[in-house]
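Lab manual, section 2.4: Encoding a predicted structure.

Procedure: take the sequence of the chain (276 residues), apply the prediction step described in section 2.3, and record the output as structure tokens. A sample record is shown.
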Amino acid sequence: MALKDYLGEQLLGVLASYQHQGIVHHVGVVYPRANNELRVFIPKGHALAVGSLVTLHLDNRTGVDELDAELRVYRTSYKGRVLGIDESWVTLQPVEFMLVHGLRVVEQFREPGYDFPADDRTESDLPITPLRHLGPVQEKEHHNKVGILTTLAVDQPHTTVLAFLNTEADDVFLVSVPGTFKQHQLDRNPHCFFIIDERAKFTFEQAIDWNYTILEMQACQVPASLPLYEQVRTAFVLKNPWEADFFLMDGLEMIHLQCRSMVFAGEPRPIRSGRA
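Recorded output:
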């Protein structure tokens, strides 16, 4: 089966790429093809070129405002190469992807001859957070249960969808089981990005109104020995009560993302993509 059989014929995606000025994010409307190529409309323009390597986060959580700890949506970090460009339209061919539903891999692809790039960067423990108490939680994001974390992997960025908690001061907290790929990436480079969107609140119509925020972040750890750990865990349960069993598990890693800058603070606007 193709990605479009799981994700649908039209969805929103967050594209990340390394360019000369650093990592760049774009938000676009994505049209998967039967051969797993993607047509992407980027309404605000881009500087991508044929041959550029990109990573596109895809998932089918549009209109979904309740997710359990296993994230029962189809999601993937799609590694692609720009095959063609037509003004605001970009065509991507797949290099590597793994489509996941819950904890299960349902489809995967790897370009012939492709192997994951060697990563000889030194891993070190994240610094301990300077925070000692949880500030006021951002209530307007209560309905937004998950966001997208971009970590700076070799050659192409990596994206992961995660439950999150954020504060009015733009601190973001994440929790996960130990030993994940994203954790290894943060241990190599704590510089990262976090994207918060409004997909839980809209459905596709003639035009798409989408409010999204991209934050440039620096990761640090929250040891379980700090009172902050239990404060954040309690707040996670209040935000996601159906996931209480997960958040109350022993041994979870808690990450605090400190905001370095706001890359983009979006406001609802019409995106007129025309035809794919």
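Check your result against the sample. The chain is about 10% helix and 40% strand.
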